[in-house]
Amino acid sequence: QVQLVESGGGLVQAGGSLRLSCQVSGILVRSRTMSWYRQAPEKQREMVASVTWSGTTDYADSVKDRVTISRDSDKNTISLEMNNLKTGATAVYYCKTFPLRGQGTQGPVSS
Hints:
By secondary structure, the chain is mostly beta strands. The chain has strands spanning 3-7, 11-12, 18-25, 34-39, 46-51, 57-59, 67-72, 77-82, 92-97, 100-101, 105-106, 109-110.
């Protein structure tokens, strides 16, 4: 059974940092394209970052230079490091690999 379980959201001051993690079981993150998406209230879901099986990364223009996606093949996890957070970053963040996704975690909430 494939599972993607996100964690790590919480209160953060504007300009602060936050790291989200996605624990994956049932598949190997190193063999898939893994992505982080987010959905803010009353907005469409958008891709934040992705990493392919070969390690190529891609980022949304709105977060480029402030976000880093990484993969730990030993732990079979995907992480999203977010820095210099802005109010617009508040959203539910989902870990995804087609056609699957996790339940989501509440991303940075301004304190």
